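Tokens for chain A. Residues wanted.
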């Protein structure tokens, strides 16, 4: 059984940093699936924030986080990380990691392409 477990969320002030982790178990996810970090704020649609292909050759960053967020992964630990710097109140949301198969060199933009999802971790940025 595949599980994705996010951690690292919390309450921070604007300008602070957080590092989220997405630890996979049950299958070698990090090296064989594309991983996306999605977020959903109250009253808003879920959006893909960043993603990395299985090969790590392709990454995706939504415009609002470019230059502030960085995705990386450690295949040996089967874990994907999201480094978030210069956090803003508008980054407040529940963050989910998700894994998409058949994505060696691409980052799917639609959530429907992702097979496995974590339970989410809350990130709250105060002004």
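Reply:
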């Amino acid at each position: 059984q595949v599980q994705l477990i996010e951690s690292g969320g919390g309450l921070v002030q604007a300008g602070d940093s957080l590092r989220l982790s997405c630890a996979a178990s049950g299958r070698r996810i990090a090296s064989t699936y594309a991983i996306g970090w999605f977020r959903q704020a109250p009253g808003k649609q879920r959006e893909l924030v960043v993603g990395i292909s299985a090969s790590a050759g392709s990454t995706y960053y939504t415009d609002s986080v470019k230059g502030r967020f960085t995705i990386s992964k450690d295949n040996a630990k089967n874990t994907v990380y999201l480094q978030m710097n210069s956090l803003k109140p508008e980054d407040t949301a529940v963050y989910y990691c998700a894994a998409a198969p058949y994505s060696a060199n691409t980052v799917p933009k639609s959530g429907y392409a992702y097979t496995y999802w974590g339970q989410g971790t809350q990130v709250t940025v105060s002004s």
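The longest strand covers residues 18-25. The mean pLDDT is 96.
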